[in-house]
């Protein structure tokens, strides 16, 4: 019986070491020489104070060879995404009427990104959504101002996110939510 207990204890120890190794590998906070902001999306590989990063930024350690001031430390851009509407009101379902509701005349939302980069790097914009489609911009869906089309969206809350890349190793994120809802007094 003691052999079995010893064997079970040894197996448990091996499993706990494996789990700890996996957690250490996956956990960005454990990596030496890196600083982290307060979000899992915000990670800075530079050897600098994490308080200088915002939760919506991440950076690589050095600028790429094709970037201006190659080899120097890079600063993450700052970005703020704004939407022209926070809510889209849909008409009542066919066969229903409403008393005092005015449905939205358009189910398209204009998204505008305000972004700056302290290093003066060229910024590129990439949008993603949890519903609807992105159109417009300088190239389809890539400019700082785009249209978010929620025409076929069902009632619910949707998120649009912009990723602003300084093309030299640093990225900033910003998101907005838009609610799509039916008129509340449909009968």
Low-confidence stretches: 20-51
Helical residues, percent = 10-25%
Tell me the series of helices and strands, N- to C-terminal: HEEEEEEEEEEE
Q: Biggest sheet, in brief?
A: 5 strands, mixed
Distance between the termini: 73 Å
Q: Helix count, per DSSP?
A: 1
CATH topology of the largest domain: Immunoglobulin-like
- Total strands: the figure is 11
Q: Any idea what the CATH architecture of the largest domain is?
A: Sandwich
User: How much β-strand is present in the residues?
Assistant: 25-35%
Structural class: mainly beta
CATH superfamily of the largest domain: Immunoglobulins
Global outline: flat
* CATH class category label of the largest domain: Mainly Beta
**Total discrete domains:** 2
Query: C-alpha Rg, in Å?
Result: 24 Å
Overall average pLDDT: 74
